[in-house]
Amino acid sequence: RLRSLALCAAGLVRSAPGLELVREPEFVNVCFRVEGVDADELCAQLSDRGLALIGYALVDGEKVVRLTLSNAVVDEEDLRLLFRRLQQVASECAAVGAAVGAAAGRGEKR
């Protein structure tokens, strides 16, 4: 069941704009990049907001989001909801990062 969920999550990553599967899941871990967002910051934001507890990992020296599926009660609809939330938070993180970068380019401090 968990392997099936990992494959479903990998499919959701593949079909989502701004997400990139790093490797095919070997078991229950799904590792992926989120365009324009630091993996650790995204994971911290998801946790701080009480939305999800997802970690990050180093894959080939790069920090990536690592979703570990360990709850067999989770279903495909739960995964779709998780990815919608993840993309919303990633979008917000990217917007903040862009604003901070623009301010830094103008010599402003946060």
Reported for the largest beta sheet, the result is:
4 strands, antiparallel
Instruction: Report the strand count.
Output: 4
Kindly, what is the distance between the CA atoms of the first and last residues, rounded to a whole number of angstroms?
A: 46 Å
Q: Radius of gyration, Cα only, in angstroms?
A: 15 Å
SSE run: HEEHEEH
Q: Low-confidence parts, pLDDT < 50 over ≥5 residues? A: 99-106
Query: How would you sum up the global shape?
Result: globular
Give the strand line-up of the largest sheet: 1-2-4-3
Arithmetic mean pLDDT: 88
Say what oligomer this is: single chain
The structural class is alpha+beta
Q: Which percent range describes the beta-strand content?
A: 15-25%
Helix content: 40-55%
